[in-house]
Design brief:
The protein is 43% helix and 13% strand. The strands form five sheets. A seven-stranded parallel β-sheet has the order 3-4-2-5-6-1-7, with helices on both faces. It has a six-stranded parallel β-sheet with strand order 8-13-12-9-11-10, with helices on both faces. Strand 5, helix 8 and strand 6 form a beta-alpha-beta unit. The longest helix has 21 residues. Helix 17 crosses helix 18, helix 22 crosses helix 24 and helix 22 crosses helix 26. The chain is built from 26 helices and 19 strands. By secondary structure, the chain is of the alpha/beta class. The chain has four domains: 196 residues, Rossmann fold; 198 residues, Rossmann fold (3-Layer(aba) Sandwich); 95 residues, Arc Repressor Mutant, subunit A; 81 residues, HRDC domain (DNA polymerase, domain 1, Orthogonal Bundle), CATH 1.10.150. Bound molecules: adenosine-5'-diphosphate.
Length: 617
């Protein structure tokens, strides 16, 4: 450890951030969390994937005396995590059942000798009395618990061995503990804090917004061809294609492979070896595409996934958010494309309808409806996702947001139809639910409707020329756009919001998505990173060099340099150490270890292309 300052100043922290990690500043919330840990407070952190959680514990681990114990649930990921820490210049090791006896002894002796900043261990390891005895002999700086939601039975990945982590605070009362997770409702948060026994923790709940992800939906027509077209327009980029069934995974992977794409399947029907091999090949950038069922989930740490394509409708918004969240972890632009077809709905209902428990079945149906709404209504996709998690988002109309904000979808003017709906709601006194309003508009007169006299109001039957699905879809749109609201309770009814007046009387227009036969325009591969445009030809060369070096050293390519670092190199053309250190993610250690061949490649590229200016100049 180069630093052993007891109360580091913010200048010390910034210097380490720049010199060791190669970052010019903190991402949102990182500074607060680092400060809390350095002050030896307990902390609880919910941050989305790609939010930069590792830095929050690696930086204090580097600055504090003693070793930081990181609890990490997946043995398969520990080696990559340690390789990434080593490539940054941190002193790190892991202890788990994959080590041979001599390897284990070596790590234990490093631990006992105070030679480590970070030791990654599994929860099972922490349960072993001899390991706790060893820990008692070393100086612990603090404990970081990754994927902390695994301790909660309310969460979606409960792991009984996590319950044992309650002992951390009883066995090591002087040591502070920070729990990290990417998903936790308030209830799960309270459960985690209580189970671990965190003491007045500093709580950070970061926004769920993933600004670098672009969300897009296109009508599903011929999925294999559409997937191929999309993948081709992203040649040389890593992507995940999700399909619902093993059969469709195999067929799609096959189809792509037959068309010259390096694609591999991943599903629970493959044996463990084949699954691990395919994941590993994808991780090393030796295959561009992995076609998978949702079995491909936790345990993907690959930071340079540039797109996630869903060939079928996901089962709910939460899964969709988690699955798309596997792209763009490095903060660089990534695409999330959903192929949506109404034909997927009966397939999902095939699984939902037989559910015997009424509550469970209704919940599954609501989830399905939410997903269909996401795909079909004319409202910013990012806003819809964030609203689902209870987070407000003011759609900016920014073209980097989603296909709707970017004006990539065709819409139709639905103002007249919207006025019909609003008028039907108003004339029936804001007291009826969706089915009744649709029945009024389409002139579907039941006895009850007649008794109420609703067959005599002006809007009765004026919407007969359109089917009921059209009117329901329009009502969904009006709800999402805040023109009307739906009450809660057993008999939800529709009511006008103040904005409805603008539509009825003040010329406000309503647009709806035109969902039929929308051309699946292939996305152009954007040679634009979060730092701006870059030279795609140079990027390809640097990427190939990264793959080669990573293979030689047995680490995933993103451990050598992230896509963000390579994009900046292909933008600014750094050819000396000073310029290289200005690239995001390049610290002193990484520069010394990997900088040479990259600067060499950039020099050669400039020589071969004397007329190509670095994009910034
Ligand atoms: P998480 O564990 O929350 O999913 P990671 O720790 O993997 O996120 O970080 C996501 C990406 O953000 C990584 O590529 C990392 O290099 C990058 N990153 C982390 N902190 C910063 C920072 N301060 N500035 C720029 N990039 C950062």
């Amino acid at each position: 450890m180069t630093e052993s300052v007891s109360t580091p100043t913010s200048t010390d922290i910034r210097r380490v951030l720049h010199d060791v990690f190669g970052f010019g500043g903190f991402l949102p919330n990182q500074s607060d969390i680092v400060t809390a840990i350095l002050a030896r407070n307990d902390a609880f952190v919910v941050m989305p994937t790609g939010g930069g959680k590792s830095l929050c514990y690696q930086l204090p681990a580097h600055m504090m005396d003693g070793v930081c114990m990181v609890i990490s649930p997946l043995i398969s990921l520990m080696k990559d995590q340690v390789d990434a820490a080593l490539a940054t210049g941190l002193r790190a090791a892991f202890l788990n059942s994959s080590l041979s006896a001599p390897q284990k002894r070596r790590v234990e002796s490093q631990l006992a000798g105070g030679e480590l900043d970070l030791v990654y261990v599994s929860p099972e390891r922490f349960a072993m009395p001899e390991f706790i005895a060893l820990l008692k002999r070393v100086s612990l700086s603090f404990v970081a618990i990754d994927e902390a939601h695994c301790i909660s039975e309310w969460g979606h990945d409960f792991r009984p061995d996590y319950l044992n982590l309650a002992r951390i605070i009883t066995e090591f009362p002087q040591t502070s503990v920070t729990a990290f997770t990417a998903t936790a409702t308030d209830r799960v948060q309270q459960d985690i804090v209580a189970k671990l026994g965190l003491r007045s923790p500093h709580v950070v709940r970061a926004s769920f917004n993933r600004p670098n992800l672009f969300y897009k939906v296109i009508p599903k027509e011929k999925p294999s061809e559409q997937i191929l077209r999309f993948v081709r327009s992203h040649t040389g980029e890593s992507g995940i294609v999700y399909r619902t069934t093993r059969k469709s995974v195999e067929q799609t992977a096959d189809y792509l492979a037959r068309h010259g794409i390096k694609a591999l399947p991943y599903h629970a029907g493959l044996d463990d070896t084949a699954r691990a091999r395919n994941q590993d090949v994808f991780n090393r950038d030796d295959a561009d595409v992995i076609v998978a069922t949702i079995a491909f989930g936790m345990g993907i740490d690959k930071s340079n996934v540039r797109y996630v394509l869903h060939g079928d409708l996901p089962k709910n918004i939460e899964s969709y958010y988690q699955e798309t969240g596997r792209s763009g972890r490095d903060g660089e632009p990534a695409q999330c494309l959903l192929l949506f077809g109404y034909g997927d709905i009966p397939k999902m209902r095939y699984f939902i309808d037989p559910i015997e428990n009424d509550d469970e079945r209704n919940r599954a149906l609501r989830c399905l409806n939410d997903m269909v709404r996401y795909a079909t209504i004319f409202a910013c996709r990012r806003k819809q996702l964030l609203n689902y998690f209870g987070e407000p988002y003011a759609a900016t109309g920014d073209e980097t947001c989603c296909d709707i904000c970017a004006g990539q979808v065709e819409s139709v003017d639905a103002t007249r139809d919207a006025q019909i709906v609003l008028s039907a709601i108003a004339r029936t006194g804001n007291r009826f639910g969706i089915n009744h309003i649709v029945a009024v508009i389409t002139g579907d007169a039941s006895d009850r409707l007649r008794q109420l006299g609703h067959d005599r109001i002006k809007t009765f039957g004026v919407g007969q020329d359109q089917d009921k699905r059209h009117w329901r879809g329009l009502i969904d749109n009006l709800l999402a756009q805040g023109i009307i609201r739906q009450t809660t309770g057993d008999y939800p009814v529709l009511q006008l919001e103040a904005k409805a007046q603008q539509v009825l009387f003040e010329g406000r227009t309503i647009e709806m998505l035109k969902t039929q036969r929308l051309a699946a325009r292939p996305a152009r591969r954007p040679a634009v990173s979060s730092a701006g445009p870059y030279n795609a030809a140079l990027f390809d060369q640097l990427r190939e060099l990264r793959r080669k070096l990573a293979t030689e050293q047995g680490v995933p390519p993103y451990v050598v340099f992230t896509d963000r670092s390579l994009h900046e190199m292909a933008r600014f053309f750094p050819v000396d150490a000073g310029d290289m250190l200005r690239i995001t993610g390049v610290g002193e250690f990484r520069l010394a270890r990997y900088g040479g061949p990259f600067m060499e490649t950039i020099r050669a590229f400039r020589k071969a292309h004397p007329n190509v200016e670095c994009v910034d100049s």
